[in-house]
Amino acid sequence: MKEFVRYKRWKLKDTRQETALVALVRNDIVPQYRKLEGCIRLGLHQITGTQSYLALQHWKSRAAWETTTLSDYYTSWLGEYQPMLDQWDRLMEFEDEWEAEVELV
Fold first, then answer.
1. CB atoms within 10 A of CB 62
2. Most buried residue, 29, 48, 51, 90, by CB count within 10 Å?
3. pLDDT for 15-52, tens place per residue?
């Protein structure tokens, strides 16, 4: 089974909010994602020389991601996650997204 990775590129609206962004991810978003079966880890990468970041979700497989995100549990999880998404949206502006399956580690 190939690891499945979701990439989203976001731009920090105000560079003075970088500390708030990192705290949100570390203290709220990462613990929330640990509740999801099949999610291996998250990543937040600042793109050098820009105000943009890559937010990565690493899943055991595409099937694990699909099973999890289509479950009844995910619906309730998303309700818990919504305040974090709202805070994220106040800090970040969406730029792009894509997915990949890992061929080589």
1. 18
2. 29
3. 999 999 999 999 999 999 999 999 999 999 999 999 99
